[in-house]
Structures are given as structure tokens and as C-alpha cells.
Specification:
The protein has helices at residues 20-28, 68-84, 107-120, 127-131, 137-145, 161-174, 191-198, and strands spanning 12-14, 17-18, 35-36, 46-47, 96-101, 152-155, 180-187, 223-225. The protein has 226 residues and is an alpha/beta fold. It has a single domain, classed as Thiolase/Chalcone synthase (Peroxisomal Thiolase, Chain A, domain 1, 3-Layer(aba) Sandwich). The strands form two sheets. It has a six-stranded mixed β-sheet with strand order 2-1-8-7-5-6, with helices on both faces. A two-stranded antiparallel sheet has the order 3-4. α2 packs across α5.
Amino acid sequence: MAERVAITGLGVVSALGLGYEPFAENLAAGVSGLAPWSGSEAEPLLVGEVEPYDLRDYLVAEKGYLDRTSELALIAAQLCLRHAGLEALPAARERRGLVVGTQFGCMATATHYCQRVRKRGPRFATPLVFSQSFLNTPASLLSIDYDLAGYHTTLTSGPESGRQAFELGVLALALGQADAVLAGGVDALSAELIAGYDAPLATGDDPEAYVPGAAGGTALGEGAAL
């Protein structure tokens, strides 16, 4: 087993900025990152939403339809490599690993596809959209774009998914299962996610205390880190 594992690059996509430097600066300055959600047409809902971005600045290959979760993962991967001063992982393709943790995966796209099937039938459901709806879609796209043909895993274990993915990536390196690994987590905000957190609590004694973004409640967020 290897004695040490080195972190050579950090790619952060968050409400505090795109990239490690702005994230670290805003975090140190005590910036909260919370702001009204752009997807809310009702009363303002405070969330940690990633700032607007031009995805083309971070892609290594042209893309068609993408779920937002996949977009955030692709941006984080490119930022990670840039931070490390690399264009690709420094290892043979079969020794390049990938571990991605996600709690909800491509929930918005999965919901969109199911709604279309229910309303119009399977003949009118787009196969391309279906292919972008899985928990492991972000990892699949990353493995293709960055030629990661080695150790490859997607895991989901609730809020700890990203941390456990990082730990599994470190373990893969320490055990000699890979020579270089992209590891971390990703999740994106969506109307379905917010409704899922909010609805089960609506019958509680004090539902206002649990509304995402409300005082004393839980403020939801999105982001990716590799």
C-alpha cells in the first residue's frame, strides 16, 4: 500500500464561486452564498445556487442536452485539471480512475422523462433525455471526455456521498488500483428536489421552521467538487 496520496488539483463549483481561489476567498470572508432561487416564481426562496456560467468555457467536446448535475460535474473536472496545471490525468488511460458521489443524481431530467412518458406515451419519449437521467450519467460523461478507462465508481449515500467518494478515491490510489483519480461529489438544485424536501414536512407542528431557506430551517444548495 502506498504511504502517501497527493492532492494535485481542486475543482470547486459552488455558490461562493467557480474555482478554488474565489471559493476560498469568499469562504474566508464569511460570504454565505445564499440568494433567492432563480427557479422560484413564488415568494423568494433562499438557496445556495451556482452563479450563471457559460458551459462552453469548460467543455472539451461538444454536448447536446445535459442535466444540470452533469454540467456542474464537467465544470468541476475542468477546473480541477486547470488548478493542477494539467490537460489530462497523468497516467495511462487504464490507470486513470474516477469516483463520483451524488445524493440525487440527474433528478430533474429523470422527472422530465417520466412525465413525458406518462403524458404522451413511450413512443414520444426522447432516448437522448433518458440517457442523461441516471445517477451515473455525470461519471459516464467524465470518463468519456477525459479518457478515464480505469477504476470507475459512482456511489450514493445521502449527504455523505461526496466525502465518501473522495475517501474511496484515496483508497484506490493507496491500494494501487489506480495511478491518478478524479474524486468528489456533485448535486444540483431542481424544483423536484426542493418539493421533495418541503412536502413531507408540511404536516408538522411548525412547518415554517422547516421551509428551505427560512429562518431556523434548512437552506438547500448545489455544487460540485473534484
